[in-house]
Amino acid sequence: MNGARTLATAGRVLRQLSHDHRSVALMLVAPSLLVGLFAWLFSEQEGVFDQYGGPILALFPFIVMFLITSITTLRERRSGTLERLMTTPIAKADFIGGYALAFGLMATLQAVITVTFAVWVCGLDVEGELWQLGLVAVVDALLGTALGLLASAFARTEFQAVQFMPLIVFPQIILGGLFMPREDMPDVLHAISNWLPLSYAIDTINAVTAGEDGWDVFGPLLIVVAFAVGSLILAALTLRRRTP
Amino acid sequence: MNKTDAVVVRGLRVRRGSTDVFTGLDLDIPRGQITGLLGPSGCGKTTLMRSIVGVQKVAGGTVTVLGDPAGTRPQRRRVAYDTQAASVYADLTTRQNLRYFARLIGAPREDVDRVIGQVGLDGQADQTVGSLSGGQENRVSLAVAMLGDPELIVLDEPTVGLDPLLRSELWAVFRALADAGATLIVSSHVMDEAVRCDRLVLMRAGRIIADTTPDRLLSDTGTDDPDAAFLALIERDAASADDASTDDPSTSSGTGHAPRTRREAKEEESS
Predict the structure, then answer these.
(1) How many beta-carbon pairs under 8 angstroms link A with B?
(2) Of the four, A103, A137, B54, B71, which is 20 to 30 A from A242 by CA?
(3) From B58, B87, B96, residue closest to A79, measured CB to CB
(4) How far apart are CA A69 and CA A101, in angstroms?
């Protein structure tokens, strides 16, 4: 791995984004709009938004970044630029790292905007520290980026890439503890949920909104980070210089 | 094998899907020359180029490039490759594309302006590639392959879709690169470009049917038209392939790049 080539790749990805104003606007504003819609939906019912608003903050950046990353890297595969990159001195880890860095930066901006909007405009009530909420949103977006990079390795077409969303993202949402506390699930499903990274992301959010700190917050968050890093390493390993 | 050859291919076997592209291909490409790779579409030109730059999964045989196995780390700085379809980022400008690749290769910043000038895109340097014409886009892609100081430049149909004036300008650039010591492998199916090469490798159906020079090609076939010469060779090969299949395989696979049929290669493999 080489810092200069990773940074060059991250810079290139951001420069590509900068030519696409509509995508940038969607990426930064769409999660806030969805959070606003959610808050409006429950505006007549006391306390519901406070209960679900937090986990929603973790979900939207995760889904948005998963989609964006898997489609962008797939486009790179199909346009021939990835093949050309593989003939240059760039390491596979530089390529994956560059994408993670660029989208991680976008994710941070997105998290700051979304959390700010949720708290100040929608009136989300958080017991714990606000910056922790932002941190979880960033880590979740990174997890989405990492899984998206990994998923794109198994997709041959954009159509397949989009189909990975119901396969990889939806089960994590259903079993993550948003609809039902994980302890109340049937044993088998509870056991499965213990292996899904989004479960720990939602645990972290719930700990922050409940005002807990220390290991209750950072324990599960570290597990999410570990999943994200693990997916990035796997994504770099599944990248092939030689293709059939 | 000649130590000074830029590319040495021995017994290369490549399968794509369920079809054999190469069943034991042999080829030597000398340094400091422009070698033209010619043949009808689907004959394996791109697969051979991909094998040389090390992005093609191969089933067997060896490809040695500049003294090392193809695609190994030291080569990625010394070998440049331009794919058939423009492999640049459509949502970046010409200059942004070249800057990115220059940083990856470790080429000096001045190189960016030099190659933009060489492919004649000074006026389009700050336009996004997506807004350029197809021919201009291909030239951006070609410019990337000229960054740095590559010893081997592999160009897959670099002049396709360009007007005659531009084609002739680009061939002058290729000649200058070869004169400066670089080795160029240029594929084409435009036969009038063949006469601009130092050496010609003619391929058909995954085999090399001639390894010659432009002058020899014309005199051997007794024509003064490259198109006619090529057609004559293909017809000659098609006829001899029918004969060879009834021959004893040991007699026809003598020297380095003698043509062989797929059946011969298969028999050799299984014995």
Answers:
(1) 80
(2) A103
(3) B87
(4) 12
